[in-house]
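User: I'm preparing a small set of examples for a lab meeting where we compare how different chains pack in three dimensions. I only have the primary sequence for this one, and I'd like the structure in token form so I can line it up with the others. Please keep the answer compact; I'll paste it straight into my notes.
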Amino acid sequence: MTNVPSGIVTFLFTDIEGSTKLAQEFPERLPLALEKHHSILSEIIESNNGFVFEIIGDAFYCAFENAIEALKAAYEAQVKFNSEKCNEAQIKVRMGIHSGVAEWNGSLYMGYITLARTQRVMSTAYGEQILISNEAYELVKENFNVTNQEIRNKMDRSEISFRDLGERRLKDVIQPIRLYQVASPALRKDFPPLNTLDARPNNLPVQLTSFIGRKEEMKQVKALLKQTHLLTLTGPGGAGKTRLALQLAAEIIDDFANGVWFVEFASLTQPALLPQVVLKVFELQEETERTLEKTLCDYLKEKEILIILDNCEHMIEACATLAEKLLGYCPKLKVIATSREALRCTGEKTHRVLSLEIPNIEKEISAEKLSQYESVMLFLERAVAVNSNFRVVTENAPALAQICHQLDGIPLAIELAAAKIRVLSVEEILEKLNDRFGLLTGGSRTALPRQQTLLALIDWSYDLLSDKEKLLLQRLSIFAGGWTLEAASEVCSDKQLKRNEILDVLTKLVDKSLVIPTEKDGKVRYNTLETIHHYAVEKLVDNSELQKNHFDYFLKLTEQSEIQLTGAEQIKWLKIIENELANIRSALKWSVKIIPDSTLRMASAMGEFWSARSYYSEGLDFLLTALGEMKNSKDIYKAKALHLAGLFSFRMGKNVQAKSFLQEGLELSQEIGYSTGIGHSLLTQGTYELNFGHYKKTKELFENSLSKFREFNVNVGVAKSLVNLGVLNRFLGDYEKSEKYYEEALEIYRELNNLQQIALTTFHIGYIAYYKDELEKSRKILEENLPILKKLGDKYYSAKSIQQLGVISYDQGDYDKSRKLNEDSLKIFREIGYKNKIPHPLFYLAKIFFKQGNREKGKRILKESISISREVGSKILLSDCIYILADIVFDQGKEEAATKLIAKNESMRKHIGQFSITLDTEVKLNLSKLKSKLGNEKFKQLWKAGLSMTFDEAVEFALGELD
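Assistant: Understood. Below is the structure token output for the 963-residue chain.
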């Protein structure tokens, strides 16, 4: 449709009654019947200007701008279905019509209450029945009375009337709704009583708001209740335990002949009064000759009944005792309990009520897709209720995602935040979440006091804890991103809370839904919701000693990892440090002003991890901060930090800063006699000089580092020096010697069982195969090695491997595949901030776009690659720029321009000791063609002209030729 209905929309929902049973009884004939069903509905809805926005199985979901047209479509479809009498499976379609506010956002309708109510109206109907809500009826009636004859003419002159079925409670537990049955001589007249909530006895309270999301969770709890007579819904305050219990009861009420009954204990303070409260729900009188429990048991003994015991946590023992007595005496009774912790009764099954689904804030999500997350849907519905103009748009979508994420998807917290849309923007709400307990107030006046503010809600849970439980919860707030049992025992124990008590107290906090355990790879990790964390932080009065314990624990862990990350358990330790990264960051930030020498020690120990994960920017920031606090120190940790700062600066293209740090680190290592530091400094300085084409100096530095590492038996350093000598010889065109260095390094790494370095060295061997024109061998090595690099989390060498595979695909003429691979590698290089490598995929993307005729895009990419090459000042990259320009100009058939640029490229490479005529068979072929086409004399003149150009002149000349 060009104009999708929005604003006040009338919805028509349909589905086939008993479709599962039909599929079992008529497996061969049903598909044809369904095909006819779909065809009839699609044709009739379209002819009445309807919009089918979703079809799920046999269910149609349709929207109409005009309520009359929705009614007409439903009527015509039912008449048509009734006329389709054949030998196929006879299908009976139930239909519901409802009107309300809904907005189409391009991919789905926003207006959860309206859509949910339409679904409920439809599911209340029987096959062949059309039900219409009062809201839709009012819209139809307005027009129906005025244009009665016209409408009747459109409906084959049938007499349409509406049978008032009265006000009915649907199974969404919110306000009752008046329903009408569409009647006509052409339609079936009599149906059984409506399948509504009031068909069974119950006292389920009317809810003022709709139940949102939790489709899969609802299936899980229904399945659990079938397996037990006692289901306890656990979870932190505000998670929606009561709301889930009420909705569950409403949906399964038909399974209980004597109905479902809600018993609320929140306001009760005396456990002895529990039976009395239950008696009151059933309007039973106390009897002097029998106990209250006996009276209850006798009443419930033979009844098929479901009881919800709500808010049991503050009287957990009494609730457990009562539940066990009732269930032991009443075989047909089922109980749903809601509590922060399990009742621990015989046969009890528990389900932890999950927070609503939250968006991943690390990914960019469009406003349309964001609206599909349960937590966002809840925010939207509650926000629109207080500000009808509120919408999710591109501008506020990131802030909304952050709000739902920071509030952990806790329904009550999100509802309180959404209520602030009356006076604040989404961005302002997010900004104020640092003071969430001051912001998130003003809940429903009719709610329990503890549900009117976020602070009161958590206070309720906190006040139920023992002193030791309170103390541990406070102390656990020192952790960021979770913790292990070992960490909690080490950091949080003292004279008040002994080490051997931690597990028991932690278990109690888990039982009370304040701590969340998660198991992964056979290890349990603990965490708290962000809101609980904020609360515990505010309760923690003095944390100075705790902070020191926390820092000491993670300093020990990082120093242990520095050793392990070069050994056989590399993958295991990469995971350990990744899991603890938030804690390590927190420890580094705390310590830098208080114990800067220890900060430097931890930061230098993190070098192996930061390098392996390509976290250059983060590592450099911490190193620079720590170095700034320790300007006058002279020790191994400072030498290591200076070397790492130089290495990371170089990888980020900050060359002046890199050279300064590397030199300072080398001088300090020499001054204090730190032999390993000397070797690493020489090695990294060699890599730096290699980038600028200073091959003679590079060779000297690499060989010196190798000598130092051999002298002090540092095998890892020896292998690294050998790999770098291999790289140097590749640049010089001596592939045999290069490969020999790689094989020697690979042997050492295999002895050390250093999986990461084995993978990196294997990459270089695959690279050499490419330069030896062994393309398939190169591809095979790189493709087999890439999954290992990805498993290790090595983004840099993964990107290099992907880019080189893109080069191979380009050389083999598969430009589409090459483009995809180069784009993938470019994305990773940008992500990790490795500027020196960004131009490489850009060069090939430019070549591909020129090959495929997209000259403008090719030129834009070329200009970006040239700009970055200039910025990092790499002579090799600058010569590569000219080489790529020459290649593209040659492909364009501009022989004279190509000759000049090849000459310039050749002179630049000779200057840095790298000969393209040796390296590139493609250049050889191009030169041969140019000499043949231009003639020897003309070729010489152009060659001379190319040699005389500066780099900038050559670039401007080439770009001009490409216009």
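A couple of notes for your slides: The first strand starts at residue 7 and ends at 16. The CA atoms of residues 502 and 643 lie 41 Å apart.

User: Perfect, thanks.
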